[in-house]
Amino acid sequence: MKKIIINCLLFLSFNLHLPNQVNAEKTLDFYMNDFYTKSNKASQILREIEGEIKAGIRRKVCPRQIKAAEIGILANESLIKAFQLAGTEPPNLSINASQERWKSLLNDCKNIN
Fold first, then answer.
1. How far from chain centre, in Å, is Cα 29?
2. Global pTM?
3. Which of 44, 65, 100, 104 is deepest in the core (most CB within 10 A)?
């Protein structure tokens, strides 16, 4: 009888612990994927703007630059959340430099309008 109770307790403890770990990994993956997706999207918008400016086209540059900056800031927030979930210290210097760059792009256009 003791053996059955011990086995049941072990079984329950594994079932309670493992799903939480899997959920944490899924959440971590979500934030990392969110970071990569948003970061790539923001960079793509900036590349398009750069190409158009080089070609002499200045169509809706500021609204798109603001959109890219906002997406870039959200990407950094996802990266910070991913580091927090992983329980590791984020590379604050790099993240802060990136955040400042995005804010600079954002403010440059907001000050023009």
1. 10
2. 0.73
3. 65
